[in-house]
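Design request, tokens follow.
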């Protein structure tokens, strides 16, 4: 049986104020084309279909279009909710959609009830484990301590119990949305840490043939049988080194897994560049990034004038500007209170300007600061008299 494993669509999300809905629609078209041209038997979507619990109407319309196009192919789709989704909203109409071959699994209580599909070699049981928020599901799974490992282990116990009761040779696929040990996170995933621990060991998923993971945005292989597809599009500059793909997985008659990465269409490359403003504007080695979405980190010791306007003349798609001035290291032992001791409001404000801009205020700016502090003190005095 051939599976197409994808996740983390985040429909409705933007990238640094750039709307991604058009790129997301292109991805859906690519997904449908891949299903048709690569003879896919089942599509699995491992959560974070939407970017937020109440998605914008345009994102809902795109999701509806995706479901109709997948259903029209006659290829079953199994889908779970992620930590960005509202499980209740995503699961509305699940029973009716199931009749069209779109199987939504959003209820924790149904973890041990699979979607059973068949090929020439017998049955394959697909178990959907939606994102399990420990504090909300610990009673459902009868665990004493609300933690990710505990609730996922209990959910997998239900999976293994159901699988053991099925005919010998039944193959198994688990969809899960979680942070599994060994995975490499990026800046665009929402933190799911509970009690200081977010990751669960891969051993939690022992006993099944393939685990289709969602949550982390980089495509990753934890073991031959446990993989993240990653997000089909970038959602932070920390993903600049990612190759955005889906997994095309062949599940043999004996449960053996072989997998191939299928590239996704990305609207524009990402680039992180660093240096002084003049270096970035002059460096010929950066020519290849002139049409990329750019995050520029400026190391000028003094903040230059109009840096964004000047950068966009060469890199018109600069979206993020970070200042990290090259300065002499300060005493790390000096506490904030010690550094302020003996300094009046005027001196503290002038130091703040120097810290942010790289150079202190000029005489005119000092006068403006002094007048502002004088006005505040005068206002305080009036209030005190009024009391």
């Amino acid at each position: 049986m051939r599976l197409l494993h994808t996740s983390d669509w985040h429909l409705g999300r933007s990238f640094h104020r750039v709307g991604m809905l058009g790129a997301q629609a292109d991805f859906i078209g690519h997904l449908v084309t891949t299903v048709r041209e690569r003879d896919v038997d089942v599509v699995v979507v491992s959560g974070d279909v939407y970017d937020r619990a109440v998605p914008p109407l345009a994102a809902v319309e795109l999701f509806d279009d995706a479901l109709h196009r997948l259903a029209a192919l006659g290829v079953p789709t199994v889908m779970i909710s992620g930590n960005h989704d509202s499980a209740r909203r995503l699961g509305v109409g699940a029973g009716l959609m199931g009749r069209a071959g779109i199987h939504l699994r959003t209820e924790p209580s149904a973890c041990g009830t699979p979607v059973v599909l068949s090929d020439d070699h017998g049955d394959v049981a697909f178990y959907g484990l939606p994102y399990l928020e420990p504090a909300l599901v610990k009673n459902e799974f009868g665990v004493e301590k609300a933690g990710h490992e505990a609730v996922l282990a209990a959910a997998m116990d239900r999976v293994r119990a159901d699988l053991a009761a099925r005919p010998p040779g039944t193959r198994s696929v688990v969809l899960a949305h979680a942070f599994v040990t060994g995975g490499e996170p990026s800046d665009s995933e929402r933190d799911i840490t509970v009690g200081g621990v977010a990751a669960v060991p891969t051993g939690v998923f022992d006993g099944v043939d393939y685990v289709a993971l969602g949550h982390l945005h980089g495509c990753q292989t934890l073991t031959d049988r446990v993989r993240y597809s990653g997000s089909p599009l970038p959602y932070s500059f920390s993903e600049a080194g990612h190759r955005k793909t889906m997994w095309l997985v062949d599940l043999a008659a004996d449960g053996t897994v072989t997998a191939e990465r299928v590239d996704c269409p990305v609207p524009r490359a990402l680039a992180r560049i660093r240096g002084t403003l003049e270096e970035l504007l002059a460096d010929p080695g950066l020519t290849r990034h002139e049409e990329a979405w750019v995050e520029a980190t400026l190391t000028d010791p003094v903040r230059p004038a109009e840096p964004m306007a000047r950068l966009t003349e060469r890199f018109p798609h600069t979206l993020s500007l970070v200042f990290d001035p090259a300065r002499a290291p300060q005493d790390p032992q000096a506490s904030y209170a010690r550094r302020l001791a003996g300094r009046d409001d005027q001196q503290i404000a002038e130091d703040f300007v120097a810290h942010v801009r790289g150079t202190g205020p000029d005489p005119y700016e000092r006068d403006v600061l002094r007048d502002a502090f004088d006005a505040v003190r005068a206002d305080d005095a009036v209030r005190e008299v009024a009391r």
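Comment from the thread starter after seeing the answer: thanks! The two ends are 80 Å apart (CA to CA).
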